[in-house]
Amino acid sequence: MKNRTSPEKKIPPQDLELIKTVEGYLTEDGYRFHSLAEDCIEMYLQGKNLTMRMLIYAHNRHLVVRVPAFIRNVELRGTEFLLELMNLMNEYFDIRFELSADGQSLSGASNHVVEDSKLGKMQFTQVLMVVAYMVDENYPRLLKILYGQAGVPTNVPTDVDVDSSEKERVGNSPDEDSSESDEASEDPTPTADETFKKPKIN
Prior knowledge:
- There is one protein chain.
- This protein is α+β, with helices and mostly antiparallel strands.
- The chain has one domain (13-185): 2-Layer Sandwich (Yope Regulator, Chain: A).
- It contains five helices and six strands.
- Strands 1-2-3-4-6-5 form a six-stranded antiparallel beta sheet, with helices on both faces.
- The protein starts with 12 loop residues before the first helix and ends in a 17-residue tail after the last helix.
């Protein structure tokens, strides 16, 4: 019986070109980043309220900017919490919040359609900052809904590790090489402008 192997993922040339463009913009602005794959970039951004692990990858002529599992290991399917997520997404069309299949982790993301395989620097910067701002700004409010006025329990994780359910949900693009991810996470935490007008990495 022959062993069955899944075919190697073939990355479209336009997606490779898109990521190279993004790498150029990040380098110009002094960001530190790490390549997880040919079509995926990982970086860390320090906001006012939490440290965000950010994944930037290309998929079918879309640029995806994602902060995976910034809230996790807690039941997130309460009515008030879900209504708040819906209100945020109705108010801000450029951002979406996604629950993992088990309802235990929350990610924030934005998909930007790239026309003619070209992405301007202003477009990229806007997508990046929308995701960073929305996650960082709403993080305390979402925790308050989950835990009430008593505050957040001390065992609530606020770092940037991704749980197994999130890795399965994201799929092949960002999170497959855990050894590279662990190596990148050993770098000192970068800092950012408090207002996110220009969240530049030192």
